[in-house]
Hints:
Mean pLDDT: 82
Distance between the termini: 57 Å
Strand content: under 5%
Oligomer: single chain
Number of strands: 0
Structural class: mainly alpha
Amino acid sequence: MGPLGGFIIKPTSVPGVGPVWLMLLLFVPYAAAYRIVSANAVPGARRIIGAFAGLSCLVLIARIIPTASYDLYLYSSQGSQIAQHGLNPYAITPAMAPDIFTSHMGAFLANMKAVYGPLWLDIAALASAVTRGDPVALVVALKMISAAFFAGCIFLLSVLADELSPSGARPALKDGALLLFAWNPAALFEFAGNGHNDVVMIFFLLLAILFAVRSRWASAGFAMAASIMVKYVTLLCLPFLLLFAVSGKGRSLGSRAAAAGSVLFAAAIAAVAAFTPYWIGRATFDGLAHQSGLIGVDVASPFVYAAAISLLGLPDVTMQQRWDAAAVFARIVFQAAMFILVFFAYKKKVAASDLHRFAFAPMIVYLALSCFWLMPWYLTWLAPLFVLEGAAAAAIIVSFFGFLLYSAVFTGPLLGAAAIAVTVSSLSGRRRGTASAALFSRGAR
């Protein structure tokens, strides 16, 4: 097939003025819809919410062109490497086996080995096999896969909201919380529009939480491994799932040990099965190690940015040395924060009503403290937490700022401003009495 022309174009890191204003303006009806649904019992609200989200996904899929991300072309290229040529993306870069997608993804991605987990490579390869390598069909198929997992997240969040909320919670509040995710302009743009695989990672994390809350430990382990095998970042969540497995009153030591063992054994089996077709020893993680070592202050988390800026006054220190020093400091602080978080979870004894909080907490810590390559769509990782907490202000502010990062320079200060805004809104919400308090009281177990 010849050049993709108008069907698939090389995106830019910054969307045009039109898409930027359109997306930002969509937050107005989004916030208004939340207020209406959460304040009133709308008959069939969840069906309406799901139907509109599905229609939005179809429109975004039909557009075909991802407007602000190169990643979809990387997925397509790697899937084709496996399905059409029998190559291993962990061993080669797209530039070593160029195809129609290579020139569209840019030199940075074209020269990087696979950084995603093997399950995602399997999904991309399956899409390539089904579409027989047709470039346009493959791009559409991958966007449809992301949209399908987005729909799955809506369903899981609906189930979890019912599982975790006390029996007296108003249905309108739960419907409004679900709308925070299903109609989120940033989430729709990133998942159905740009086809990011982050939604697949989120889906399996939510599934693991649901299985764990229902004490289906082996299933929770498989789901947790599946999330990690898409994007490795959710490996940070595994300790809290294990702490939940060994917590709980009225359970014997043996049953708690068996629960944790089931989680670990199932996760290990799933990981081995996923990696076996691709395993090339330590070199399997060459791409991940390379990406993890990339540090750019303009695309780093707020703490990394602040640490680098604090070194500006030092004489004879280059920009790269400042970045490197900031990275070392950030890693130390991140490790200390994770230790404190795990210790707190251990002392508190994670309960069912707290599991989602502890599961998403390490991702917040990572994004705030030591993410050296922070992309706007990473903020969508936190959307399910806001839904389960009924935290409307946080959901809207973080999503708004996440998209705003496209049209501004990716800066730590902007993210810092978002963090301050969320904190202020959260504190003021506590004084007024928030939907979160009604949805998830501390006594819900």
